[in-house]
Amino acid sequence: MTARPFVRASTASASIHGLPDPAREPEFYAGVTAKRGMAWVVDAFITFVFCVLALPFTAFTALFWWPVLWLIVGFLYRWTTLASGSATWGMRLMAIQLRDRDGDRLDAGTALLHVLGYTVSMALFPVQLVSIALMIGLGRGQGLTDLALGTAAINRPV
């Protein structure tokens, strides 16, 4: 079952799908790059809290492999939240969502690929810098993973 795509108020037909054009509908992209940055900080804090909560279940041995725990917890957190609502909790707080090339919410497979791309870009810091530069410079604010998958973050439609 796929989520229903959003319909923009400026369209005459409910059958028009796809990502909004930043030139014709800039309100969907206004401030999204900064909101993604703030959402990332919130998501990092949430990941930290989940890791701390998981510590007792590892008999505190996770202190010795903290980066691995962070990677696993962060990956699962991002994947489950993107697959269930097309946004992490930080993104929801900032009122943004990821949409696929058809304007639909992300399904579990696309969410998995998006998180995998994010994880690779975080592991290879220069790739993350290029991704951030693209988000700042492109009209849709897309990073490398977004460009590869055809996804974009937009202000959440009302």
UniProtKB/TrEMBL annotation:
<dbReference type="InterPro" id="IPR010432">
    <property type="entry name" value="RDD"/>
</dbReference>
<feature type="transmembrane region" description="Helical">
    <location>
        <begin position="111"/>
        <end position="136"/>
    </location>
</feature>
<feature type="transmembrane region" description="Helical">
    <location>
        <begin position="68"/>
        <end position="90"/>
    </location>
</feature>
<feature type="transmembrane region" description="Helical">
    <location>
        <begin position="40"/>
        <end position="62"/>
    </location>
</feature>
<feature type="domain" description="RDD">
    <location>
        <begin position="34"/>
        <end position="149"/>
    </location>
</feature>
<dbReference type="Pfam" id="PF06271">
    <property type="entry name" value="RDD"/>
</dbReference>
<protein>
    <submittedName>
        <fullName>RDD family protein</fullName>
    </submittedName>
</protein>
<keyword id="KW-0812">Transmembrane</keyword>
<keyword id="KW-0472">Membrane</keyword>
<keyword id="KW-1133">Transmembrane helix</keyword>
<dbReference type="GO" id="GO:0016020">
    <property type="term" value="C:membrane"/>
</dbReference>
